[in-house]
Design a protein that fits this description.
six-stranded mixed sheet, 31% strand, 2 domains, Deoxyribonuclease I, Chain A, alpha+beta
Length: 318
């Protein structure tokens, strides 16, 4: 069975839709017709942000965060350190941005967790625990939700790996689990991973990432000297001086990756990526001890009808 047929078959079994199986058969046929493929296109604005569960001035910060997310108008948002008790970060943000959401509690009573918010419907959620803890209380996980976009289902993930910006074998083990779970999930569209990897851009974890994983920020800002993209910036963010790790150097540890899919004949173009949520309110309260990352991408692929025509209807003599 060819690679593409295997992918269609796996998706068909997961979704229970016979149409996927028919599509699998058709897509497995050799392309011989000279039919120009019209491309479907979808622009997506993506945002990842660590809310900082332990930073003070929570009410002021949440008001600022909610207003800024509303202004940025992203399609899909990934959040880390999402406290739901005793302060309900998620409820507060959704009062301003009433998107669909999924939530994975990673600490007792909801003192921290992961969340994905989407302008488009969310049709499935999977929670994957990761090995290792921070201290005695904070567990780590990978949240996976399926976004039902106009281009079809897109798998979106968010995670927060164990802190310590230096090399860390425990974080390497967590990352191996993240990469494994994403690799096990078949998709005809690109997959999206956003989150706080707590790993330096030049470190061992980043060097292990496959070439088809697109680092959206560095793709849009290829000169690291001119734009280092520090999301943990001790010189610019006053919340860091009051954090548990005030002496850590400024580093880029928050990322948005788009994992390309060859099976769906899709292309991904990074239109823009920049740091956001980095200005304090008039009273000097910063949104978090991290800065956020906003990326705009365009996904395109052949229209389904054109794709089937090119696979199925062939001129005589072929």
């Amino acid at each position: 069975m060819g690679a593409r047929l295997k992918t269609f078959w796996a998706i068909g079994r997961k979704s229970g839709r016979v149409a996927w199986i028919v599509g699998a058969f058709l897509s497995a046929q050799p392309a011989t017709a000279q039919v120009p493929a019209q491309r479907e296109r979808l622009a997506l604005t993506l945002l990842t942000f660590n809310l900082c569960a332990t930073c003070d001035k929570r009410d002021e910060r949440l008001d600022l965060i909610a207003r800024e997310i509303q202004r940025l108008d992203p399609d899909i948002v990934a959040l880390q350190e999402v406290m739901t008790w005793p302060w309900n970060f998620l409820k507060k943000i959704r009062e301003t941005i009433p998107y669909e959401y999924s939530y994975y509690k990673t600490a007792p009573k909801g003192i921290s967790g992961l969340a994905i918010l989407s302008r488009y419907p969310l049709t499935r959620q999977k929670n994957h625990p990761l090995p290792g803890k921070t201290g005695w209380i904070l567990s780590h996980g990978l949240l996976n939700s399926t976004v039902n976009s106009p281009l079809g289902p897109i798998e979106v993930y968010t995670t927060q790996l164990i802190p310590n910006h230096m090399e860390n074998p425990k974080r390497d083990s967590q990352w191996a689990t993240v990469a494994e779970k994403i690799g096990e999930n078949p998709s005809l569209n690109p997959q999206i991973l956003m989150g706080d990897l707590n790993a330096r851009e030049e470190g061992r974890l980043q060097r292990s990432i496959k070439a088809d994983w697109i680092d959206t920020f560095r793709t849009a800002n290829p000169d690291a000297a001119a734009e280092p993209g520090y999301t943990w910036d001790r010189e610019k963010n006053r919340n860091i001086s009051a954090s548990e790790w005030p002496d850590w150097p400024s580093v880029r540890i928050d990322y948005i990756y788009v994992i390309a899919s060859n099976e769906g004949e899709t292309d991904v173009k990074v239109l823009e990526s920049r740091l956001v949520l980095k200005q304090p309110d008039p009273k000097g309260a910063f949104p978090s001890d991290h800065f956020g990352v906003l990326s705009k991408i365009e996904i395109s692929r052949p229209e389904i009808i054109a794709l089937l025509l090119s696979r199925f209807f062939r001129p005589r003599g072929f």
